[in-house]
């Protein structure tokens, strides 16, 4: 698994938008809380939350609805 530092570096390498970075940080925080509540691995869940959209700027989903197309 990636270290928190490696995950952050990957996110910054792939994501330029401040708004998208803020969104990713918010999801990281939420995932950490869900992991804690579920007694799961907080670091793993936080990493998944942080990186869930890391490649969006390079490979965006152009569909109007998530159900029409999703990578």
Textual characterization of the structure:
Helix 1 runs parallel beside helix 3 (42-51) and helix 2 packs antiparallel against helix 3 (42-51). The relative contact order is 0.19. This protein has a domain at 4-51. It has three helices and no strands. The radius of gyration is 13 Å and the shape is globular. By secondary structure, it is mainly α.
Describe this structure in a few short sentences.
By secondary structure, this protein is mainly alpha-helical.
Secondary structure topology:
Layout: H1 4-14, H2 18-38, H3 42-51
By DSSP (H or I, 4+ residues per run), the number of helices equals 3
Biggest sheet descriptor: none
- Strand count: 0
Anisotropy-based shape: globular
Radius of gyration: 13 Å
How far the N terminus sits from the C terminus, by CA atoms, comes to 22 Å
User: How helix-rich are the residues, as a percent range?
Assistant: 55-70%
Helix-strand makeup class: mainly alpha
- Sketch the topology as an H/E string, one letter per element: HHH
Mean of pLDDT: 89
Strand content: under 5%
Low-confidence stretches: none
Features:
globular, 0% strand, single chain, mainly alpha, 3 helices, HD domain-containing protein, 71 residues
